[in-house]
Amino acid sequence: MSPVFEVANLKKAFGGLAVTNNVSLTMSPGDRIALIGPNGAGKTTFVNLVTGNLSPDSGEVRLGGELVTKVDAIGRVRRGLVRSFQVTRLFQDMTPAEHVGLAVLQRDGKTGHMFGNFLRMPDVMAEVDDLLEKLGLAFLMHRKVSEIAYGQQRLLEIAVALALKPKVLLLDEPAAGVPQSDTGRIEQALADLPADLAVLMIEHDMDLVFRFARRVIVLASGAIIFDGLPEDVTKDALVREAYLGSYANASPVA
Ligand SMILES: Nc1ncnc2c1ncn2[C@@H]1O[C@H](COP(=O)(O)OP(=O)(O)OP(=O)(O)O)[C@@H](O)[C@H]1O
């Protein structure tokens, strides 16, 4: 299958510190990849570089074969590279329906309607209903974000990302901060993501990594030190050394 996303020899340094050190990877439709690494390994910087929120010092990023290294973040979203919307970027006074509706309009280049009553547009509302229903949020679609639980806000991030119809979805710790009682809903949402979507998830929770990922990439000091199957990652000597044993006792779930 031809790759949907390619990163080649990406480099970024802050001052003298190489934070992204010659990173290359490819993703195909349907991939389920977990990107892990110790604190400060460079995971967030990598995501910022590929989404266009930071400029690399050198290297290339391609989406669907097209070189996008010089394309801005919005242009990359239009081409199908979407990062999960962060809770901190949700508007507390807006409703889930308004968030997802705006994402649908943005995707279709109809932001001129943003201040009209787009919630009366049947085609927009059909998509809003459908997505919020799938994520179990339909019952509170007209409540303010400030009134809904944190776990529901994290599900809303996923709904907003999906409204943009991504080909590649980057998820930054989708269950972080969610009470244990609500993580099942997030995991279900991850399991229900479209089969042909390529997903890369940054995650510290190794139980979630082993349940979600079919491939694991380990970043340490800005470089990829492992790219392979989940069942092999904890056996890898370089990975064990990078974590100094902190994850080495975790075991993959069959
Ligand atoms: N804008 C910046 N200027 C200078 N140094 C930075 C900047 N952004 C990140 N760094 C440094 O780059 C390194 C990698 O940071 P990054 O946030 O990408 O790591 P991470 O793997 O996402 O960490 P964590 O798991 O703790 O979120 C760290 O040493 C960090 O201090």
From TrEMBL:
SUPFAM superfamilies: P-loop containing nucleoside triphosphate hydrolases. Residues 5-246 form the ABC transporter domain. Belongs to the ABC transporter superfamily. This is Branched-chain amino acid transport system ATP-binding protein. Signal peptide: none annotated. Pfam families: ABC_tran (PF00005), BCA_ABC_TP_C (PF12399). One of its GO terms (molecular function) is ATP binding. It comes from the Bacteria. InterPro entries: AAA+_ATPase, ABC_AA/LPS_Transport, ABC_transporter-like_ATP-bd, ABC_transporter-like_CS, BCA_ABC_TP_C, P-loop_NTPase. Keywords: ATP-binding, Nucleotide-binding, Transport.
